Amino acid sequence: MTHPPYLHPAYTSTVLRAPAQELVMPKLGPDSVELTAPVFGDAEVGALDADLTRQGQGEPLGERIIVTGRVLDSRHRPVPGALVEVWQANSAGRYAHERDEHPAPLDPNFAGAGRCLTDGAGRYRFVTVKPGAYPWRNHHNAWRPAHIHFSVFGTAFTQRLVTQMYFPGDPLFPYDPIFQSIPDEQARDRLIARFDMDTTEPEWALGYQWDIVLGDTPVEE
């Protein structure tokens, strides 16, 4: 089993939200317009949407990084024109969201969200800052490893993958029940980005490579 179970008691919120009955799959398929009509246009994605460090009045605080990779289908063929969205905490481990009450500083120059369309080779690229770890009250002394949330859309809004990308060597991996809810160690490893010197730009930003393989990347439930 690659994907985490709906009910994973160590991740306490799943106890409240996991379905108690077997899933009933409807026989109705998506409308034909969802499969044939364009969902996203190039005009919808702005020039700075993929650079999270240039969306404020100045530079955000923290370690600037480049995150790039390809979106591939289950046969490892590139998926061009896919909408990829990201959201994350700032370098202090706080989200720019009213429900985040973590007593860490907000960064007025970092909103923590971006998006882009994959190119003809299925490649995406974001410039951002490395997010910080943050407490999340799931259990005593609970901290989330540094991570970036990813959302990938197919040809319709009903076709969506939501997952998380982690950073190599994080000491919090063994203590995080969300990461550990994936029973297959190799599947967990697929959620960890690879530091890449070729992506790294001299005297400017470290680079990370992370491919998203649809049908192979563990799904965030």
Walk me through what this model shows.
The protein has about 220 residues and is mostly beta strands. It has one domain: Aromatic compound dioxygenase (Protocatechuate 3,4-Dioxygenase, subunit A), CATH 2.60.130. Helix content is about 10%, strand content about 25%. The chain contains four helices and eleven strands; from the N terminus they run H-H-E-E-E-E-E-E-E-E-H-H-E-E-E. It has helices at about 15, 30-35, 175-180, 185-190, and strands at about 65-70, 85, 115, 125-130, 135, 145, 145-155, 160-165, 195, 205-210, 210-215. Strands 1, 4, 9, 10 and 11 form a five-stranded mixed β-sheet that branches. The protein starts with 12 loop residues before the first helix and ends in an 8-residue tail after the last strand. About 25% of the residues are buried. The mean pLDDT is about 90.
Set out the fold topology:
Elements: H1 13-17, H2 32-36, E1 64-72, E2 83-87, E3 113-117, E4 123-129, E5 134-135, E6 143-144, E7 147-153, E8 160-166, H3 177-180, H4 185-189, E9 194-195, E10 206-209, E11 212-213
